Protein 1
Amino acid sequence: MAAPSTEVGFDLLGQAAPLMKRYYDDRRVYQMAFKNRPLFAWIPKKTGVVGGSTAGSGYGGYQVPITIDDIAGESAVFASAVEARDGDSHRVWQLDRIKRYATATIDWETVRAMKNDMGAFMTAITPRIDSAINQLSNTIAMGLYHPDGSGHRGIIKTAWTPGAVIELTPETAHLARTWSLRRTLTASTTASGGTLITAGGGKTKVTGIDLTAGTITVEDYLQITGLAATDFLFPLGDYTASGETQKFMDGLGVWGPDPTSISGGDDQGGVDRSVWKERLLMLHADVALQSTAGDGSFVRGCRQAAAKLQANEGSPDAFFVHPDRWAQIESDLASQSRYEMMMGSDGRTGFDSIVINAGGGKINVVADPWCPPNTGYMLQRNTWELFSIDRVPDFVSDDGNRLHRLENADEVEFRLGGYFNTCCRAPGHNMVVNFLTS
């Protein structure tokens, strides 16, 4: 590549823009975003969803029509069919469109020092962009499995005092991996709809993470004080306080909560899900872990769960589980294991899967490291959708420039992000499988 001009007024960022567009094309960004994130790769994408607002119910958010029953106008008598033909057989969900951003900078001195070597400039900037894509994709991958859609990154197990590690509950210990060093941590006594704990400065930065122990270490100054058991942890900016618009995406926990927790008037997206839980919520089934490895009981339990889902008119084609559970299924099947490549929505990214047959249907069992260890999700692909204005993740740049010179700092900034959410048009055709550990 010819060296760019060094004349005064040379547009270095303009020179970099077309190179970055070629380097970070759709294929590359999707491959980076989907790697090691099977559910994120698998879920169908619908871009170009515009209109409405970020606030859903009553404000023109994304509307999802859900048919929960067949037509009522059917009878051996024509007059009876006519009389019942206007039966209420559908609901319309109002979904919020949420925002996610990832930004980083490179100082202008470094940029100027490499103005005659665009290759060196790209070498300097791409690790930061790659890291931002990775971090944003991790949040989406985690968000798809989030237990309640609040975006919390763990629940405190025991009361914490400055100087000690923050220990997460066993059910949320896997969320420790969603933190990163130097990220600002905040806390609240509620998952959403309350206020942040502000005592002792109200926020602090993460200095250590132990994934095996499920613990987090924070800095020694400006620590939050008074953290109690059952308090929720959040990255700065993610907590949805009282009166605020939803800040985190609707993951599987929103579409498939424990049915016993849903009562009349407990609406989600403007829909009272208590009127027919088997259609307006994902089904639930319990499967016991095998007491003897390879005895076939685990796979048998999974097939029985699939049969329950199929009896509710579901046609599951994928079963996402933690790698530990995938290994148990493989052990249970032993020599009968049959493998197949499951493709992502981009048609290029693939993941190894074990094929199990249940009720005459084929289901691809996929190991997803973001899936909680003791929960699996049996899903029907054509009922799901990740809708967005543009591709997610993508560069946030309406003017076409992927790098921006900051006015208040001697730095160049890039911005990645998206405006999106997930929806399910037939929750009852999908299932949450709870693996019993005792």
Protein 2
Amino acid sequence: MSNSNQEYVVLIDKNNKVLRIAPKLETHNYNTPLHRGFSLFLFNKKGELLLQQRSVKKKTWPLVWSNSCCGHPKLHESSIDAAKRRLDYELGISDADIFEIISDFRYKVEKDGIVENEICPILIGFSDQKPTINRDEVNDIAWISWDEFIEEIKNDPDKYSQWCILETKKLKNNKKFLSLLDIF
């Protein structure tokens, strides 16, 4: 680990037991091993969901629209702490209430020869802080109501990351998610 700027992913077995860490960029290829991730859907107090268009510089799914923030926890880092770290890095949001909704979501998807293969807790968060885009990570952002987002995914699924669509299907009837959305 001589390069302090290099990011790593936590490789795991099917039971989410740590096997080892590996360099993030080298790990994501046509045969990506199972690793830990997280996926955050961030809402403002008006109930609008923050969407991001991934940067053209991203190895995986460049310029594809997705949920607010995704990433990989470090070894011994919780999904919520990882989400807070990445939310600040990607969108300059340092003040958010974040909740884990589904802890054991697992998916494997492929696009342009790159595979994502993760156990990926689905998180939701709430913040009224104005985003500041990190162009290395995010090309653009948009706010949309949850109901409009559900319709848009139905009508234009190719616009969005595959994991975002799968996670949205899991969230849309989840009682914990819906009750938190009502509270905030």
